[in-house]
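Appendix B, record 7
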Amino acid sequence: MKKTDLSIALMTLCVTLISTNRIFAQNWPGWRCDGRGISSEKNPPLKWSENEGIKWKIPIPGAGHSSPIVWGDRVFVTTAVAEDPNVETFKGGVYMGGDRHKPDESEYAYRVICLDTDEGNVLWSKAVEKQSPKTRRHTKNTYASETPVTDGKNVFASFGSVGLYCVDFEGNVVWQRDLGLMRRKTGWGTGASPILFSNTVIVNCDSDDDSYIAAFDKATGEAVWRTERNEGSSWGTPFLFEAGSRTIVVTNATRHMRGYDAATGKLLWECAGGSMVSVPSPVSTQGLVFLSSGHSIGFLRPQPIIAVRPEASGDITPPRGRSQSDGVAWSHHSGGSYVPSPIAVGEYLYVPQDRGTLTCYEARTGKTVYEKQKLGDRNTITASPVAGDGNIYVQTEDGECYVVKPGPAFEILAVNKLDEVFCASPAVSAGKIYLRGRKHLYCIGK
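Structure tokens (predicted):
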């Protein structure tokens, strides 16, 4: 090879590697990226409104609380589109009730939609299934509340009792798996998103009937392992936690919070003491993994927060009257959030409450740093916060996004208002923030 040809080849290789790394850094492949909700990018948007800072705003048909995910120059969302749109009812806020006596009386098209990140153009919209709902849903839930996940080749989308689907980047269904009928407490519907580990896609399928967690081969959809769970309904997305040479799948639930070997599904540890309604997903920092839950209605106790050590094994439930054990670094009987998941940034754990407040704890000790700081007046928080470049973004149902400075002092850096209801968690990619509202998908940034 000539020197000139060699130089060109090396330059091409460098450009390819740089481009690959750039795209990789921009990806937001699943719910809260990898479950932690933290972006490594610099200078995400700080201020916006309906009149400024919006790159594009695109209507999304149907109803769905699933979050957008991003890979390269594509953004994906899922939705459930009713043949009769009058059944797509919704009631926001925090309240008792919301139970529906029967499934929606309409056929739904369960869709995966792919848009380009530059202008929001719909590249394709694939109805992976059309059928009437098999189960009921809460008035605040939808039939498309599970966030999809992608490996850059395929998108894996769960629609609960409708099934798990693998769709390629051209919109073709590669495989489908029946997850069984998932009847949830008082018919509230489903919400736990799939996650990826190695060559598998993992789903947690808790219900009031037969609960289990399972891993399926990404390429074929064939079952790799399945572990039965002595559990009732839960809604939290599983979380991958690195502990030495093993990767643990951590799950939240009412009877026991548990850790499984991600490669085999073997139960590694469990801790009793969950709340009667377990929705938030685990997070981690400082070598600990944190689980929390609890309805915000005061008499529905407990509302636990626990910090699990990486070397935990067996039954790690703290003895009665104690807040620690060999596997539990610390725990609180109250303070857990109902729907939104906490976020852990650096030395601190931040727990948003559904009624619009934020509490901060020292991650290593559980010491309260500040408590129930208000984010506006009478706000409801359903979306889980994300973080990027030293900022924490807390999106409220009423369209206000509070940008909070991390650290021991509570400080609001900005408040950004949009004219829509938001229940889905944000996505951050390539210097832009993607917000999924009840009717539109927003791209915030330049």
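Remarks on this record: The chain is about 5% helix and 40% strand. Helices lie at 3-26.
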